[in-house]
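Revision sheet: structure tokens.
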Amino acid sequence: MNRMTTFKRAVLSAAMLSSAALLGGQAQADAPIDTYDRLLPLEGGSNFRDLGGYTGANGKMVVKGLLFRSGAPSSLTDADIAYLDQFDFEAVVDLRSSEELDLYPNRWATESSDIDYRSVDYSIVALAGNDAEAMEEMREMASRMDMMYRNFPTMLKPQLTLLFDSLLSEDGPVMYNCSAGQDRTGVASGIVLTLLGVDREVILQDYLLSTQYRRPVIERGNVDLAEKAKTNAFAAMMLEAGATEEEPVANPLYMEDGTPFLHFAFEEIEEEWGSVEAYAEQELGVDEQDIAVLRAKYLR
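Predicted:
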């Protein structure tokens, strides 16, 4: 399997597997950051959490109430939306494909005139291919998490570029998500926290929290995949791949030897680009000056 084919399979596999700091500014002064430690108390949320509180560059802390990561927020209740409105979110960056957005739309962000909702318009099905061979290779990719994560730095370039554009341009809270908030969102968080100077071991521990904070039943919502498969090719591929509605808890995010899957994304970056900083500059257009801006904005 060549590198581009592997890359395309990784896109689909990611979606299948995923189906005490100071406040930074007056805009967040009324945000209810004292109502949670890390995971936000949402009735219809899954893995919606704050990245604040970690120690970054020069001993400064990541600001609480500004950086959030999440699974697809498609099941939020009216009470959840009212709660989130108190944060005055400025941007939501959705890492999912058009087919995923069709299945599980984000009505909170898309129906708000105050939130800049951003996503990359791409077809996960077109990238992966529709034939039987493509499906078999997708299953192989899903069983080789190290391979999938090694492909993320290339696969996620458009989405990560969009994310960093938002992080650099917005002054208020930003949230980014994929379907489960663990694979694509986990890699994005790893890169963001690395550029903020957070220790690698802390980053890996944050990544592993997704197993504890995910709520697969909430993520699935009440979507009838069989019905959706009539018009949504990704839903059809999910059914073909054996997607069920019986996963009560999330699967662990590490290999049999205990190595977190995220380790392989970092390993790929360091082998191919030398460092996360070099990768960010060469592939995402985030240079030293931009990193300084990020640290001034998100560290205190």
